[in-house]
Amino acid sequence: MTIEIVDLNAMEWTEVQASWPGKVAPGEPDVQYKPFTLGSALVPGGQLVEYEPGHVENPHSHTESELFYIISGGFSLGERSLTAGMLVHIPGGTVYGTTAGPEGTRFLRLHVET
Known about the structure:
Blueprint: E1 14-15, E2 31-36, E3 46-51, E4 56-60, E5 65-77, E6 80-83, E7 87-90, E8 96-112
Antiparallel strand pairs: 1-2, 2-3, 3-8, 4-8, 5-6, 5-7, 5-8
Protein backbone atom coordinates (compact mmCIF):
# COMPACT_ATOMS: atom_id res chain seq x y z
CA MET A 1 0.00 0.00 0.00
CA THR A 2 1.07 3.53 -0.71
CA ILE A 3 0.79 6.37 1.75
CA GLU A 4 -0.55 9.48 0.04
CA ILE A 5 -0.05 12.99 1.35
CA VAL A 6 -1.71 16.24 0.32
CA ASP A 7 0.22 19.33 1.43
CA LEU A 8 -2.50 21.95 1.83
CA ASN A 9 0.13 24.50 2.88
CA ALA A 10 1.66 24.28 -0.60
CA MET A 11 -1.69 24.84 -2.35
CA GLU A 12 -3.03 28.22 -3.43
CA TRP A 13 -6.42 29.42 -2.22
CA THR A 14 -9.24 29.29 -4.79
CA GLU A 15 -11.99 31.91 -4.90
CA VAL A 16 -15.59 30.95 -5.51
CA GLN A 17 -16.58 31.54 -9.15
CA ALA A 18 -18.91 34.45 -9.88
CA SER A 19 -21.38 32.02 -11.53
CA TRP A 20 -21.93 30.12 -8.24
CA PRO A 21 -25.44 30.95 -6.92
CA GLY A 22 -24.06 31.53 -3.41
CA LYS A 23 -21.41 34.04 -4.51
CA VAL A 24 -21.52 37.15 -2.33
CA ALA A 25 -21.76 40.68 -3.71
CA PRO A 26 -18.53 42.67 -4.10
CA GLY A 27 -17.37 44.03 -0.76
CA GLU A 28 -19.26 41.44 1.34
CA PRO A 29 -17.31 38.93 3.47
CA ASP A 30 -16.25 36.13 1.13
CA VAL A 31 -15.04 32.54 1.19
CA GLN A 32 -11.98 30.80 -0.26
CA TYR A 33 -10.97 27.16 -0.36
CA LYS A 34 -8.33 24.59 -1.26
CA PRO A 35 -9.91 21.54 -2.94
CA PHE A 36 -8.22 18.16 -2.64
CA THR A 37 -8.69 14.54 -3.61
CA LEU A 38 -6.55 11.44 -3.38
CA GLY A 39 -8.20 9.80 -6.36
CA SER A 40 -9.58 6.84 -4.42
CA ALA A 41 -13.25 6.01 -3.93
CA LEU A 42 -12.30 4.85 -0.42
CA VAL A 43 -10.96 8.25 0.64
CA PRO A 44 -13.32 11.24 0.57
CA GLY A 45 -12.32 14.36 -1.29
CA GLY A 46 -12.83 17.69 0.32
CA GLN A 47 -11.76 21.24 0.83
CA LEU A 48 -9.98 23.37 3.37
CA VAL A 49 -12.44 26.28 3.63
CA GLU A 50 -11.92 29.74 5.04
CA TYR A 51 -14.78 32.16 5.72
CA GLU A 52 -14.00 35.82 6.20
CA PRO A 53 -15.48 37.30 9.41
CA GLY A 54 -19.25 37.67 9.02
CA HIS A 55 -19.47 35.62 5.79
CA VAL A 56 -23.00 34.31 5.16
CA GLU A 57 -23.71 31.11 3.24
CA ASN A 58 -27.36 31.30 2.20
CA PRO A 59 -29.51 28.18 2.64
CA HIS A 60 -28.51 25.50 0.13
CA SER A 61 -28.00 21.73 -0.09
CA HIS A 62 -25.62 19.20 -1.60
CA THR A 63 -26.36 15.75 -2.98
CA GLU A 64 -23.49 14.26 -0.98
CA SER A 65 -23.30 14.19 2.80
CA GLU A 66 -20.68 16.41 4.41
CA LEU A 67 -18.40 16.30 7.41
CA PHE A 68 -17.09 19.62 8.76
CA TYR A 69 -14.23 19.77 11.24
CA ILE A 70 -13.80 23.29 12.58
CA ILE A 71 -10.11 24.16 12.90
CA SER A 72 -10.36 27.76 14.09
CA GLY A 73 -12.97 30.40 14.71
CA GLY A 74 -16.58 29.42 14.49
CA PHE A 75 -19.90 29.84 12.74
CA SER A 76 -23.58 29.46 13.36
CA LEU A 77 -25.54 26.66 11.71
CA GLY A 78 -29.19 27.45 12.22
CA GLU A 79 -29.61 28.01 15.96
CA ARG A 80 -26.36 26.23 16.84
CA SER A 81 -23.06 27.97 17.53
CA LEU A 82 -20.09 25.87 16.42
CA THR A 83 -16.50 26.42 17.52
CA ALA A 84 -13.02 25.02 16.92
CA GLY A 85 -12.72 21.32 17.67
CA MET A 86 -16.31 20.44 16.74
CA LEU A 87 -17.19 17.86 14.08
CA VAL A 88 -20.47 18.26 12.18
CA HIS A 89 -22.26 15.74 9.93
CA ILE A 90 -24.77 17.14 7.41
CA PRO A 91 -26.74 14.45 5.54
CA GLY A 92 -27.01 14.86 1.75
CA GLY A 93 -30.09 16.82 0.69
CA THR A 94 -30.25 18.80 3.96
CA VAL A 95 -30.93 22.50 3.40
CA TYR A 96 -28.73 24.64 5.65
CA GLY A 97 -26.98 28.00 5.83
CA THR A 98 -24.08 29.28 7.94
CA THR A 99 -22.82 32.61 9.25
CA ALA A 100 -19.17 33.04 10.20
CA GLY A 101 -18.33 34.57 13.56
CA PRO A 102 -16.48 37.86 14.02
CA GLU A 103 -13.10 36.09 13.89
CA GLY A 104 -13.87 34.18 10.69
CA THR A 105 -13.72 30.42 10.33
CA ARG A 106 -11.35 27.79 8.96
CA PHE A 107 -12.70 24.26 8.58
CA LEU A 108 -12.13 21.01 6.77
CA ARG A 109 -15.06 19.87 4.59
CA LEU A 110 -15.14 16.21 3.51
CA HIS A 111 -17.57 14.93 0.85
CA VAL A 112 -19.18 11.67 1.93
CA GLU A 113 -21.00 9.78 -0.82
CA THR A 114 -24.06 7.97 0.43
